[in-house]
Amino acid sequence: MSHDIFSILREKEPAFSKGQRRIARYITEAYDKAAFMTAHTLGKTVGVSESTVVRFAVDLGFDGYPSMQKAMQEMVLNRLTSVQRIEVANNRLGDQDVVSMVLHADMEKIRQTGEALDRSAFRAAVKAILNARRIYILGVRSVAPLANFMGYYLDYMFNNVHVVSGFGTGEMFEKIVGVGSEDAVIAFSFPRYSASTTKGARYCRSKGATVIGITDSMLSPLGQCSDQVLVAKSDMVSLVDSLVAPLSVVNALIVAIAAQRERELSQTFANLEQIWDEYDVYEKQVEK
150-186 b/e with 16+ CB inside 10 Å = b? Predict the structure, then answer.
């Protein structure tokens, strides 16, 4: 659907029944809670039947309640404050086992990512990185570990990797000011989307660099200013952002790039093994 759910509610409001007005009012005033309620729970909360909620979703133009719920969840991605995240997470958790809930949620995000990831965009991203004069990796705040992890492994393969993480907008631009058309930029951004990452990616693209955005949606701020978008699902409805699926995408990129540089990597690691052994970099396994 072309409009967000608030726009749809405003457009359809004149034709709402009394019960539908109650549903619409609750969604408008408590969208952070409504987006994660079942049709039964939403109906019970506003005092209408579950079937009324389902018909309401269809009347708005959705295939059913799950489609409307998905639209509501997408709408709140960049609206929830940290306090709201904690409240919603606690409401969803209830009496469930925390470990089981989190692990199953992470597995589901990986499954969704496997379905959503555009393989042609992935191949184009790998090619752009392999052919780049310089590689910039942008990731600030909670996604900084992703940028640093990727930079750690790409440093073994290339001599031109620049990780830009932990910087404010001004400092970021100081690090990327020399970007050009022969460079590749890998940027990470998930809700709540960092404005500095989007601005940095947009600047790099304006200079002709190939921007590879790893984000949760083609329509995210970063997705809209990237040449190649690798969609990775993230669960933001908690104080801690789940970045398991994005990390899996990073792993896939590293493996794909390494496969193309097998000869160079073999020589690099042969040299490193000698150095690690000589300088006792790693603990040696003691045979019993």
Answer: bbebbeebeeebbbbbebeeeebbebbeebeeebbbb
